[in-house]
Task: inverse folding
């Protein structure tokens, strides 16, 4: 079925998972220099950060560097983290800023060449064991056709599992706007998947 190729629709309005609580507790413990807590915090969120920056920047050569920059910034700012939001949301906001700063830095320098291959970036960030992938449906490749704002809203809420309120805070827009972007993204992806599954119509020779 077409719908099986997309992650189940997540209503993440106020959802706080035990995993998020643990990650936040590790971040708070890491402030006092707990090396084990630092390692657990980084390991728990490394994949999410890498996937998020890859979606935002679209450059496979930059994703690893941006993820590393994100964690360096976060570890240097842990003393200011007070747990008012989840550590995941706090870290992704730092990742978003790292990508924005990277764009500004590149814009200030002469560009030697373009890196248009967004597909390479999503392939590196492609998660395993999502429904539909065993049927050869490359969901993340389809995300490339979405407008950037809808793609970000979909990735944050439906793939990374952030509550809509936190995704709205990250995106600096109302919660209703995030919901609208996610709904439109799902509609577009479903339409594309439907078209992909329709059999080709043979062209008859005149």
Result:
């Amino acid at each position: 079925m077409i719908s099986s190729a997309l992650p189940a629709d997540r209503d993440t309005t106020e959802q706080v998972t035990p995993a998020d609580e643990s990650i936040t507790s590790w971040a708070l413990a890491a402030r006092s220099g707990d090396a084990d807590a630092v390692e657990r915090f980084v390991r728990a969120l490394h994949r999410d950060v890498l996937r998020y920056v890859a979606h935002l920047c679209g450059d496979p050569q930059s994703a690893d560097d941006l993820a590393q920059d994100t964690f360096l910034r976060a570890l240097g700012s842990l003393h200011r983290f007070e747990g008012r939001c989840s550590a995941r949301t706090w870290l992704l906001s730092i990742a978003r800023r790292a990508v924005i700063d990277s764009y500004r830095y590149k814009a200030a320098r002469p560009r030697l060449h373009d890196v248009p291959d967004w597909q390479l970036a999503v392939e590196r960030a492609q998660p395993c064991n999502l429904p539909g992938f065993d049927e050869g449906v490359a969901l993340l490749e389809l995300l490339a056709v979405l407008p950037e704002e809808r793609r970000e809203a979909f990735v944050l809420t439906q793939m990374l599992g952030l509550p809509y309120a936190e995704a709205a805070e990250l995106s600096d827009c109302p919660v209703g706007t995030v919901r609208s972007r996610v709904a439109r993204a799902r509609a577009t992806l479903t339409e594309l998947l439907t078209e992909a599954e329709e059999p080709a119509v043979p062209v008859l020779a005149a």
Remarks:
- The chain is about 65% helix and 0% strand.
- The radius of gyration is 19 Å.
- The first helix runs from residue 18 to 30.
- Confidence is low (pLDDT under 50) at residues 111-137.
